# Entry
Amino acid sequence: MVATVLTAPSADRLRAVDEFLAEAWADQAAHDARLRDVAVRVRFDRGVAHLTGEVADAAQLRLVRGLVGRLAGVYGVWCRVRVAGRNPVVVDLGCGGTKQYPQNLGLDIYPAPGVDAVADLSGSLPLADDSVDVLFAVHILEHLIDFLPLVDECHRVLRPGGVLHVMSPWWGHVNAVADPTHVRLLDVQTVKGICLQRPPGTPRWFPLHVGCDGASIFADLTPLGADDPAPEQPHLARFFA
# Structure
């Protein structure tokens, strides 16, 4: 048995990768006719693509997300984009004093600057069914002994085509165990379990993008309906062993 060891990239390497990704995307946007009239800005930060701006419809947003996610070196594709003139409803779960975008709605169990509503994330989310376009769960799941109820709640509140962005410490990095409030260890294979190994009748997810940089795992998940087809193997092979 051969053990595979991932080493977190240095700050210098991450900056270099971001520069490469920015050049690669600029080149693709300049030569891909499908992107000619797309008013989406793409910024890369430590391998995560941040999408802002506006698109004509949801199909155009899916196109941009998919093309950005195919670039080698992208760990996640995070998004706050207006669709057909409508501002997205974006919620930061467990945001504390830091939101991923200032305009987001922040939920946390403790009051803090940036927290718009106090909520216990281990229970029901104070959000209506099919009411949210984007959810951020950044450094949250590792704090919950059982995070599947929260993942199921995310499925409930996301609109069709909505996205759950997950970021958590990778189990093999010291960050995963350095914080005594971390009670779960996560891996890319954990995301595979969420998407493919739940019992029948539980909420289903499609992995848009999954990655690990040696320090953190990233996952962009969109909810599947009861009658939606399962992800095809060539797509899954990009992310999972």
